[in-house]
Amino acid sequence: MYLQIDSVLKKMTVSVTVALLLTAGTGCFIQYIPVLSEAAYEKFHPDSDEDTKPDSETELPPDLLRPDFYLSQGFGFLEQSGSAVQIPVSEEETQAFSDPGDKPYPENWNLTGGLVQQMSYGTYAGTNYFHLPKAGQVQNQTSLSNQTLYEESQLLPEFRIQKDGSPQVLIMHTHTTESFEPYERTAYDTDFNYRTTDSSKNVVMVGEAIAEQLETAGIGVIHDVTVHDYPSYTGSYERSAETVRNLLLQYPGIKIVLDIHRDAVGGNGVIKQPVAEIDGKKAAQIMIISGCDDGTMHMPEYLKNSRFSCLLQQQLESDYPGLTRPVLFDYRKYNQDLTTGSILIEVGSHGNTLGQVQYSGELIGRSLARALESLEE
Asked: Per-residue pLDDT averaged across 139-165, rounded?
């Protein structure tokens, strides 16, 4: 049996600002969505001129040519900047609190708000994208050349896997409470901020599906279900880093750390539900994020993480064409300094359904097991 760990944080703090946002209710939904302004678009795409745009608009869903519906940069539902991944929380910014209790998943829905729109991301063109040798793409948002990254993608990770019963893979969740739509529908509830401590309705359920497939393949796995982002969203990466470090000390044979999230794509009263049809069933499309060090992140071996992300991307897209969005290779840390097999996976968006993301978890687990078999000693 694989191990599932639930560490209770004995001392937690909550940001006053985040607490106010979480309790704001109706009317705050839109400001949480990571809508990109023209200025933000230019920040992420300083070279976004006519030469770098797709050769044909048919190669991208039309919405992706608009900044407010641009392909999400891998941020969660509550607003978060690229530099906000690991900022210590000062005592002045926090306040002590007692156990806040659970954050339940809604039982009743107010569907008078915006729309849910189902769509599929396809193949991308432009100088920020390149195809991997076997299948899948990478979105390169760094100063490294595509050729450098392509050459790295042809190299296997340096670690090897043993099927000896010891833990080889750690699955965890920095934003543990990230949640989804209950089922397919065309409207969403603006009172729900897509976060819940109900592990059957958040990303823990996705991690469980991945873990079950690894266990079936005989690969040792630990699924840590510690809640790192509730009630305080601020500081969640620091808390998850502590969790990972402790588990690496306890289980030094762990080679891979998967931080399972869900994305948030939408704006202007519409949220997106990115899907792919796999074997006649709808799965939430996924995106791997592999970080790059800009010289300030103390992450010198980031290219080794990129090898693993490309290995998994190629396996996923070979097994299940259309399931993946391009790997996002960008200046992010996301605790990816802790191993050379650390990546973040966005499984669907807040517009995807519980059933769609659970199915994607199963598919990720199957492909990951196949990819790791190529690394078995």
From this structure: 96
